[in-house]
Amino acid sequence: MVELSILVFKGAKLGYDRYGLKGAVAGGIVAGGSILLVREAVSRFTEVDDDRIDEMAERIQDDEELADIVGEEFADDIDLTIGKVEDVIDEFVGDDRP
After folding, report:
1. How many domains, the chain?
2. Is residue 28 part of a domain?
3. Which pTM value belongs to this model?
């Protein structure tokens, strides 16, 4: 399985860089919760086994690999999703930027 701790750490680091300690907490929660939610949804609603989910999750950690997987046509959707995640962090943290 993709190391959940790595994803939580990356989310916390992004949140901390932007919003300080509150952002780190929010970013870690969002990153960790997101991967768990996606894994649960994929395994529940598809017949994809856990090994295949792990393989794809490892591939998307590399930005170039992610672009190859989703293609350029979905780049705007990815940017929109990232924007929504940032909005959730903003709502949680408020406007307390360091």
Report:
1. 1
2. yes
3. 0.44
| pLDDT tens profile 41-98 | 777 777 777 777 777 666 655 555 555 655 555 556 656 677 777 777 777 666 555 5
Domain extent at residue 69: 4-78
Q: Which tens digits make up the pLDDT trace of 6-17?
A: 777 778 888 888
The token pair at 12 is: 């916390």
CA distance 13 to 30: 12
Query: Which of 44, 43, 61, 63 lies closest to 53 in space, CA to CA?
Result: 43
